[in-house]
Amino acid sequence: MNRTRAPKISATLIALSLTYLTFLIFAGCISSRSDVTYGPEGCPPRKETLKQIETGRTTEAWLLSTLGEPTSRTVADGSEVFKYHYTRKSDNSFAIAPFLHLRDEDTDYTSLYFELKDGTVSKFWKED
Asked: Quick one: DSSP state of residue 50?
């Protein structure tokens, strides 16, 4: 009798085949997303813009033309304080369907304050 033997398959070939098969199964199921949105005030001014502000020199007109109308104005003791409030929301997600879904939501708040005396910035600061 003539018996035919089945070819031997090496363990390495089996491992590579399973890895390839796993990759094919999950390749279409991986997704990620990242969204950043700002509140109605828009995004905060860049550092380069804020570096241009000098106490005793920067005027109310410059602030209004560069930063727009402040979120609020307060008058006290002969000075006026402009407050600019900004909100930044980020939403990040990563998924390997249907096994894993990670989500991270974050909200950052920034406020800029400018104290004005006689129409000129006398002091300014930032709060995060």
From this structure: H
